[in-house]
Amino acid sequence: MKVVLFFEVGNWEELEDRWEFKGGVGGLKSILVEVDISLAGLFDKIYGKLGLSSDTMDLVLSYSPPLNKKCSPLVLKDDEDVAALLASRSDSTCKIPLGVIVKPTEVCAYEKSSQESSDDTDGSHDGFRDNYFDLPVFRNMERTENDNGASFTQPAEGNPVVDPLLWLTGAASDEPVNVPTTEASDSTFRDRSDLHEGKYFNTKKDLKRKLSDIAMKGNFEFRTRKSNRSLWVIECIDPNCSWRLRASKIVPESTKFVIRKYMGVHCCSLLNRNVNHRQATYVVIGEQVGPQYVGVEKGPGPKGVQTFTRTKLGAQISYYKAWRGRKHAHTLIRGSPEQSFHILPSYFHMLEKLNPGTVTRIEVDGESRFKYLFLAFGVAIRGFRYMRKVVGIDGTFLKGQYRGVLLVATAQDGNGQCYPLAWGIFDSENEDAWTWFLTQLKEVSGDTDELALISDRAPSIKKAISTVFEKTHHGACA
User: How many whole angstroms separate alpha carbon 314 and alpha carbon 277?
Assistant: First the structure.
């Protein structure tokens, strides 16, 4: 069954004995709706009738209840409110006309995410239905409480409410737009994101990463009200703000999350918009700055990360957090040190397979933990035949997480240029380390009286050479 519903665009005005809806120049309009239409369906009908888009305009639907006493207009908040309105029909016509308040999205703290009933797992709305008479439309009116509910007086002269029909007809396009300008409505803003109810994310982690990025760029913070494997409910850190989001798994067996409820408008004070975000964690920062380290040798340092976060994300972070973010970015791009040690056997296997003659060795302790490493490429070993038979050996400190030293053996070509021959990684420059390294090097360079090893005067090197090599000469730097 279909019902004729009349509506008018305008604003409510409080008179001495009643509330009266003052329509604009557009006059009364009508739509034909099903008797069991939902609130979302009603919004779609009215948007279509007015030729408006929900992306640029927000609607507040309300009506004056047919009572014998003065009471505030009732705002349609859910499907039950719509059913109650249409229950007043006579034959196929609704007796009560609907008042439609139209506001640009920038000044209307109303989000239609509260229109549809929730299909969340626990059936709780968790505060998604706010008091809609706290919207910017009414915020410049003086509010009083009486037995019949909230009452509002008209705004002061010089601070009028915009006539919505001027927005529809464009009649006000050449005039300055006058909107409510109280302290509360000055703080109303949207998060400017592409989020909406029904949007899917592959994992909860992807959703959290997206929200953290939105929060940093919007200079606001949010806190978690409820979180488990299948549900995530967050809200603005200001308890009086309307911004909130609720997401849950599509089905319990899936990893995909879908946004069930979303109120994308903030009405919190400017004082609560903090640039030192709790959402600006080192993990989020590392993910954002990660591309800066792709294909480069070093990339930005901690101070560079601070600058990037301030200019690109709008957040101020400490030097320590920037350092941790940089470290996390390195891990994402290049892997962690633990991962690198773990894949060493596979890496060496591929080197030997693709570079014939390559010599690789890995020494582990009694608990199968990494101890020593040796590497000499096959092409370097073959080329050493044509080099001068003088090899310099030395070590340098490593500055990674697990420290250690890098030992190297370098020859010299006919042009007097360095010719890398072998590398090794050890815990420190001690006699055991040098003895193991030179034992592996002996397989590469041989042991002849034509070969000379040059090193510094470290006693551990001298003793290791005398232990490993029998014919090779040893010379020390001055």
Answer: 9
Long-range contacts of 395-398 (CB under 8 A, 24+ apart): 395/426, 395/429, 398/425
CA 94 to chain centre: 47
Per-residue confidence (pLDDT) for residue 355, from 0 to 100:
92
The one-character DSSP state at 76 is P
Reported pTM: 0.48
- Beta-strand runs (E) in 64-163: 74-75, 89-90, 93-94, 98-104, 143-146, 149-152
Answer yes or no: are the C-beta atoms of 436 and 363 closer than 8 Å.
yes
CB 381 within 8 A of CB 359: yes
Cα–Cα distance for residue pair 210/264, rounded to 1 Å = 14
Residues of the chain scoring pLDDT < 50: 106-187
Measured CA to CA, the distance from residue 155 to residue 52 in angstroms comes to 27
How many Cβ atoms from other residues are within 10 Å of residue 183's Cβ? 9
* Structure confidence by residue, pLDDT tens digits, 378-433: 999 999 989 989 999 999 999 888 889 999 999 988 888 899 999 999 988 899 99
